[in-house]
Amino acid sequence: MNQNAIPDALLLLAPGCPHCPAVLEGLSSLLKEGAIGRLEAVNVAVHPERASELGVRTVPWTRIGPFELEGVQPPAELRRWAEQAGSLDGMADYFFQMLTSGRRAKVEEMARQEPSRLRALVRLMERPDSSMAVRLGIGAVLEELQGSGLAETMIPDLGALTKNGDALTRADACHFLSLIGGQQVAPWLRACLDDEDKEVREIATEALEELEQN
């Protein structure tokens, strides 16, 4: 991801929407400042087909770079997403919101579009505010993508966590490597057989046994 990329923005609005003018004004300010490169505003009352093709049911609806935002967005939030549009940390923030709001399917959809985005999930594992629910969500995403090869982009980052994270993080990293599967994960898992934590050793052992069976 290019941290210096200037994103484009799309806004879907409708007549009578009380929040649409404020979001339009906020985006227009970002456009004037050069924080976004282009702004397309679509009146869905005139062009309902645009809302239909994007699966949008309520307005205002905003897309800044890869980030889709529903409802009213304060100027500070619009700026934040514009500034993070090209960064892995920004994608991690977005995935955090998706996983904590029950929108795991959106993470899967974005991962299929661009597998490198999955590296942001590893960033989430390092965050102190990542709850068990977030970690379970990451596991569910990887289970959904199992066998696709899309998650292989995560292997080096997860492998690093098996060495540098705390015990819980090392255990999760081993588990997620096992979900990705394939011989590429085997060296990382073998290294975990000597981990000081019993759970990490057990997860690595079971994962390697499963790899050998396949």
Automatic annotation (TrEMBL):
Which positions are tagged coiled coil? none
Question: Which residue ranges does the record assign to the Thioredoxin-like fold domain?
Answer: 13-81
Which InterPro entries does the record cross-reference, listed alphabetically?
Answer: ARM-like, ARM-type_fold, HEAT_type_2, Thioredoxin-like_fold, Thioredoxin-like_sf
Source domain of life is Bacteria
SUPFAM superfamilies for the chain? ARM repeat, Thioredoxin-like
| Protein name as it appears in the record | Thioredoxin-like fold domain-containing protein
Q: Which organism is it from?
A: Sulfuricella denitrificans (strain DSM 22764 / NBRC 105220 / skB26)
